[in-house]
Design goal:
The protein is an all-alpha fold and 142 residues long. The chain contains eight helices and no strands.
Length: 142
């Protein structure tokens, strides 16, 4: 039995609104598309996705639909798991990078293609404090 977005979120949210129903339909179409195009997605062809009424708003799901499952897994690793790993290992934890990463996280799960540059800048500013400075500033003398 496959559960739709409406089944899962209907208990918690108003599923009658236009924004929710349109995104739910786009996500359901995306899952159907991805089930038949798992390895390569649309091959980078966004027009093909639009013709099939597929427009996922979540970054990993969009990567899966456009480029396939392997880029989607890499996206999850590089944008979600690795930054949290860096944060947990960071010696200095201040509020500003946490806020930047939180904003990045929520934008990427709602619709980061409308403001991709802002999204990547937020990720960059969050990561620059969490990456060990010894690795960033190493310059090899020739």
């Amino acid at each position: 039995v496959l559960y739709t977005n409406e089944d899962i979120f209907g208990f918690f949210f108003d599923t009658e609104g236009l924004s929710y129903t349109s995104r739910s339909e786009l996500n359901d179409n995306g899952w159907r598309f991805l089930s038949s195009h798992l390895m390569l997605g649309s091959g980078g062809d966004l027009a093909m996705l639009v013709r099939q009424n597929v427009d996922p708003h979540e970054l990993p799901f969009r990567m899966a639909c456009v480029f396939g499952i392997i880029p989607a897994i890499l996206t999850i690793l590089l944008f979600y798991i690795y930054p949290i790993f860096l944060f947990l290992r960071a010696k200095q934890k201040t509020l500003l990078p946490i806020v930047f990463y939180s904003i990045f996280f929520f934008i990427s799960l709602t619709n980061n293609y409308t403001c991709i540059i802002l999204d990547m800048f937020l990720l960059y500013f969050a990561l620059t404090e969490w990456i060990p400075q010894a690795n960033i500033n190493k310059v090899r003398k020739i």
